[in-house]
Write a structure and sequence with these properties.
4 strands; alpha/beta; 4-stranded parallel sheet; 2 domains; Rossmann fold; globular
């Protein structure tokens, strides 16, 4: 119902909606979870493909995303103009809510002593997805060498099990239980994590809108707020709206009152 109301809102505003699944979902290979560059290619390619369908679409386009899609939206915004060069498309701006940012900093701290903000059991599933995807992308790092039997089993299950079922399966664990040694004990880990899932904070050529619910327990609000500070420090054109009474999901609809005029303005600009 939430997504129906949200997407119907944009349709009613006169936008066409194009959505890509993530690489590895319905295609060969694993889902490249939170991989910034891979995700950006997928989003931009979906827009290019839509313009090959003979539909009466404007060359102007924007990106909207929530949660994992918020991270995807921000990454795609960074490379949207570059990755669509020569296609005639005109990228205008991005709306991102519930956005996981700089998650590589959290992952870099992973190990037997890992402590996270209160995120609930879904954090186990997120951890498993990151491990499964990252070890496929970087087999040279031998991530399995720092995983416990429980961590190895969780990463294996994450290759084929969807989030709600995986959350239930792993409910008795904590992310710390996945590790027998710190992830950072593997040489080159920090650089590898940033290359794989780092959040760009410079190089945006169009405005950004960030919506944050302070009751979010899926993505720590501090993650997005720190990202906003980075963008401001780097003189990027960013608008922040905070929703004190909204959780992760509630921020989606609450943000419409602010994101609708924002998108209208970037198309008019």
């Amino acid at each position: 119902p939430r997504d129906d109301e949200y997407l119907s809102h944009w349709l009613n505003q006169g936008y066409a909606v194009v959505a890509s699944d993530y690489a590895g979902l319905g295609t060969p290979g694993l889902m490249s979870y939170l991989n910034s560059v891979t995700t950006a290619h997928g989003v931009v390619d979906s827009v290019i493909a839509a313009h090959d369908m003979g539909l009466p679409l404007s060359p102007e386009w924007a990106i909207v995303g929530q949660s994992q899609g918020g991270g995807a939206a921000v990454a795609s915004a960074r490379w949207a103009t570059e990755f669509s060069a020569g296609t005639g498309l005109d990228y205008r701006g991005v709306v991102a809510t519930g956005t996981p940012a700089n998650i590589d900093n959290f992952v870099r701290q992973a190990g037997p002593a890992l402590q996270l903000p209160e995120l609930g059991p879904v954090a186990n599933a997120y951890t498993a997805y990151i491990l499964a995807a990252f070890r496929e992308a970087r087999p040279d790092l031998d991530i399995n060498s720092v995983l416990t039997p429980e961590g190895l089993a969780a990463a294996e299950r994450a290759e084929t099990v969807c989030v709600r079922a995986l959350t239930d399966e792993l409910a008795d664990l904590t992310p710390a239980a996945f590790f027998s040694a710190p992830l950072s004990s593997i040489p080159g880990m920090a650089d590898a994590l940033y290359e794989y899932m780092g959040t760009p904070s410079t190089g945006f050529d169009r405005p950004l809108f960030l919506g944050v619910g302070l009751l979010d327990r899926d993505v720590p609000p501090a993650s997005t707020l720190a990202f906003y500070d980075q963008l401001v420090a780097n003189n990027q054109n960013v608008t922040l709206r905070i929703y004190p009474e909204e959780d992760h999901s509630g921020t989606v609809l609450a943000s419409m009152a602010d994101s609708t005029p924002f998108l209208r303005s970037v198309f008019a600009g």
